[in-house]
Specification:
heterodimer; A: mainly beta; 11 strands; B: mainly beta; 7-stranded mixed β-sheet; 4-stranded antiparallel β-sheet; 52% strand
Chain lengths: 112, 115
């Protein structure tokens, strides 16, 4: 059974710092992996989608990497801003299905 | 991409009552899903809403408690029946586009509080 874990559960950093959020999954047979942002009381916004054949994806200050063999993905946020404060969720799409299995999330707070 | 709207955005309900949540997508989608996010927890898939047939429920969720309809390709409803305080959660609808089946788009969620 696929399980997705995110570490740390919460993170507080000063503005301008570069940071890394971690996601690990137990079954390497995945179709893709997606990073989402969730603002308090709101839905999810997709940040980056990495297909199983890809190693990384970049969007602006965000870079996500994928290492299927080790069951790990990282989300790198460069030059963090207070507006980046949110919960970041990692979700794995197991092969051949549309179902996503979500991680526990990392609650990020960027201090001005 | 797809824009997904949900109604209501939030509600406070009494124990024993039922609430129906609506989900509308602005594009034709192949699949629609309903998730629950309990306080402090991550998202858990409730069911897949199938057009023209009964929804497919995940382990731990049953049709009597969470009846789902999907009358067409762009609309679905989830009813939370006979509510108890344990049903207090955010309920999210998501959809996968016919043209982009490798990703899901999420609605803003419905925050439900049961007293």
């Amino acid at each position: 059974k696929q399980e997705v874990t995110q570490i740390p559960a919460a993170l507080s950093v000063p503005e301008g710092e570069n940071l890394v959020l971690n996601c690990s999954f137990t079954d390497s047979a995945i179709y893709n992996l997606q990073w989402f942002r969730q603002d308090p009381g709101k839905g999810l916004t997709s940040l980056l989608l990495i297909q199983s054949s890809q190693r990384e994806q970049t969007s602006g200050r965000l870079n996500a990497s994928l290492d299927k063999s080790s069951g790990r993905s990282t989300l790198y946020i460069a030059a963090s801003q207070p507006g980046d404060s949110a919960t970041y969720l990692c979700a794995v799409n197991p092969s051949g299905t549309y179902k996503y299995i979500f991680g526990t999330g990392t609650r990020l707070k960027v201090l001005a | 991409s797809a824009v997904i709207s949900q109604k209501p955005s939030r509600d406070i309900c009494q124990r024993g009552t039922s609430l129906t949540i609506q989900c509308q997508v602005d594009s034709q989608v192949t699949m629609m899903f309903w998730y629950r996010q309990q306080p402090g927890q991550s998202l858990t898939l409730i069911a897949t809403a199938n057009q023209g047939s009964e929804a497919t429920y995940e382990s731990g969720f049953v049709i009597d408690k969470f009846p789902i309809s999907r009358p067409n390709l762009t609309f679905s409803t989830l009813t939370v029946s006979n509510m108890s305080p344990e049903d207090s959660s955010i309920y999210l609808c998501s959809a996968a586009l016919i043209s982009r089946t490798d990703t899901q788009y999420f609605g803003p969620g419905t925050r439900l509080t049961v007293l």
